[in-house]
Amino acid sequence: MLTAARPFFSSRTNITLLGQARRQTANGLKPTSSSSTALAQHQHRLFATSLNRAQATATSQAQASILKPNTTAATRSIPPALPNKTIKSILTTTEPDTVVKVQGWIRSTRQQKHVTFVEVNDGSSLKGVQAILNGGQGKGLVAGTSVELEGTLVKSLGKEQALELQVSNMKVIGHCDAETYPLQKKRHSFEFLREISHLRSRAKTASAILRLRSASAWGFQKFFESQEFVQVHTPLLTSHDCEGGGEVFKIAPRISARAQQLHEERKGANQQSLSESSPSSPGPAPSEFFGSPVYLTVSGQLHLEIIASALSRVYTMGPVFRAEPSMTPRHLSEFWMLEAEIAFLDKLDHLLDFSEACLRETTRYLLETCSEDIEFLNTWIDKSLKQRLTQLVEEPFKRMTYTKAVEILQKSGEKFEFEPKWGQGLQSEHEKWLAGSYCKGPVFVTDYPAGLKPFYMRKNDSSVVSGSDDRTTVGCVDLLVPGIGELMGGSLREERPEVLKQQLKDFGLGEEEYQWYMDLRKYGTVPHGGWGIGFERYLLMVTGMDNVRDIIPFPRYNNHCKF
């Protein structure tokens, strides 16, 4: 790790320090009956001590000035770059009796004899603004219409809002066909909203989820920034299956008939050249654009390990893909992963501490900044949502080993569909019971059997092999949360070259193919570890929703890929 270097002092600094040392030495001398030699030695020692103290103080001040953030840049307010304010900004920063302009879509209308009440929303907040149109201004307005309203913001006489807009001018930007518009002022089922996913973001629940999704991403980024991490953009195309499950999408170009014909002609010409001892080759077939098989990524972890070997603390957030035909409410073919990799990490508990802090601080950020949306979801989706999120922020996560978890499951008396046994993976029913019924909150389960986990996880030094009973475990962790099961998975990575080499062999992976991975251990290996969080599963937790297809804007799953 980085060690503070001894600072270089200028001649002016040295003179100042010498003066400080002399003054401190003079203050420290007291009359004594010793000989002049003893007095000189005593004075020299005091002088040296005072000089060292002065240098240490200067070093501390110099380092503080270097490490102190630029508070001016951090607190500088960025001026608006667009001409119009959002409805959220208008309602939170504008004084009553101010003339404002509002743009948005009509969510609902209520017409009376001489006045029309219109709720207009632009997506920046949950409720939008209530606009009052007098006379015949509101005639013919229907839900879904896009409008621009200008008027005076006044205090509301109603209980539902503090301010409302007294409209003086109205402009219809885009008309809406009321006969066919599917979103009306009533509750729609989530199944119905999935069928009109190009319009469902206008519904209250969907828009609240999208705002929470955005705030969650920003909350994670703020946490990583506070811990001095560097964000890395890992590739979507990869030549490796990180998880080793084989459930990957293979990339193949769409080849036109003309391109295929040209390839065949070139191939024939090259074969003729080869017969004449020419070194030319026909090149890869059109179906192998990159010259070898390439897949959509299932994880950015291996790429993060490369960068962590130079930058120490890195993270990435982006889409990943799995060709898993599962149709459960927890699975998608395209979803987002938040992944972190940390160098110089040699204890699993430190990884758990970091993971817990990350989730705790991000969730705290949501409670502080998205209270309106969380309150809405707590009212209409899950009435225990706020209580669970508050518990997550305030109470420490529980921890247990895989071995202990299996023992608890076996003694629980519960009738599980799959019998819990050591050496077998925990099923979803086991995970949900452990987190929901037994721990009643998040729980880290650590040290799984090596045979259940990928090749790169570090084998525990305390693993036991007795005859045919192989109890080898790896330093890994799964975080289980109520109602969802597994939220996060991570581990210490195998940094010992000889152990990793054997792991590749045991898993049937070619050492030549993973030579680059071995090189990271060959050239300055360090203990390191990391984890990945399924972003959509985190959103299930903080929204109270049941189906992962409802918290991603454009869900992709088996037999479904619209737009």
From TrEMBL:
Q: Which UniProt keywords apply?
A: Aminoacyl-tRNA synthetase, ATP-binding, Ligase, Nucleotide-binding, Protein biosynthesis
Under InterPro entries, the record lists: Aa-tRNA-synt_II (IPR004364), aa-tRNA-synth_II (IPR006195), aa-tRNA-synth_II/BPL/LPL (IPR045864), Asn-tRNA-ligase (IPR004522), Asp/Asn-tRNA-synth_IIb (IPR002312), NA-bd_OB-fold (IPR012340), NA-bd_OB_tRNA (IPR004365)
Which Gene Ontology cellular-component terms appear in the entry? mitochondrion
Q: Where are the transmembrane segments?
A: none
Q: Does the keyword Manganese apply?
A: no
Bias regions of kind Low complexity — which residues?
273-286
- Member of which family? Belongs to the class-II aminoacyl-tRNA synthetase family.
Q: What is this protein called?
A: Asparagine--tRNA ligase, mitochondrial
